[in-house]
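Consider the tokenized backbone below.
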């Protein structure tokens, strides 16, 4: 869409409206996602974790009784609880997307799928920005011609 020549005013308006709507949706997803917190607690209740997309592990609470266990048990409990909190965050993020009408495909628990989705969103945003720049330049050019 680098060149809008040949598009009618109605088509150009539709494209601009569509781009604005995409940007609004991306901003809404970003804003709602940054406030999400994944939470988990170990089966024995001795380890609890809060996980965010911004900070990663935001809070880690280890009960003093857990410190009396073997280091391997402590490590395993912390790691599995962090993973559970990450999973909780992914589920909450998926719910946000569903609420906003975005289609969620595949295994939302897969980090490679999340990375691919993130890459698609980034690509879509970059394409949107490029389209917006091209549309703005074309509109400025048309406006300049109209003033002459």
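A designed sequence for it:
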């Amino acid at each position: 869409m680098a060149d809008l020549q040949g598009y009618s005013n109605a088509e150009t308006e539709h494209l601009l409206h569509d781009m604005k709507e995409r940007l609004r949706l991306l901003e809404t997803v970003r804003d709602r996602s940054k406030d999400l917190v994944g939470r988990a607690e170990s089966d024995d209740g001795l380890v609890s974790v809060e996980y965010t997309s911004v900070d990663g592990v935001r809070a880690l609470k280890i009960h003093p009784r857990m410190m009396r266990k073997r280091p391997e048990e402590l490590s395993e409990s912390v790691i599995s609880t962090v993973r559970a909190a990450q999973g909780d965050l992914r589920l909450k993020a998926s719910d946000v997307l569903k609420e906003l009408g975005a289609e969620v495909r595949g295994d939302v628990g897969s980090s490679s799928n999340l990375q691919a989705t993130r890459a698609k969103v980034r690509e879509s945003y970059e394409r949107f920005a490029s389209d917006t720049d091209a549309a703005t330049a074309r509109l400025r050019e048309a406006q300049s011609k109209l003033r002459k």
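The chain has a mean pLDDT of 77.
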